[in-house]
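In this section we walk through a basic example: taking a raw amino acid sequence and producing a predicted 3D structure, encoded as discrete structure tokens. The instruction is simple. Fold the sequence below.
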Amino acid sequence: MSYEVNGKTIEADANGYLVDHTEWSEDVAKAIAESEGINLSEKAWEIINFLRDEYFNNNGNQPNERNMVKHFKGVWTDEGKVDAKSLYIHFPKGPAKQASKIAGLPETKRKGGY
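The resulting token sequence is shown next.
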């Protein structure tokens, strides 16, 4: 599998995750999101950037949904109640896995998924 972005072929594995995370860019993220049927809202980008920051600056940490909710409760103060549904609005096939794919991160090996 691969993605065509700005005239360049970006290689991905059979599940659509990037083979080389250094090829990731916002344009690549948009191409992956399009293939997933996702419209990247401002909050979707916040989730993507949080996952990338955790992975690259916290020893390859890939937060699960519970930890993502905990983080965004402190960030999305205008939302009122922040729960897993708040994340699924942006990534309906699972915020931890689907957002990680769009963020150019490796496939998480946790149970669950799509």
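Looking at the output, two observations stand out. The mean pLDDT is 90. Residues 2-102 form one domain. In the next section we compare this with other chains.
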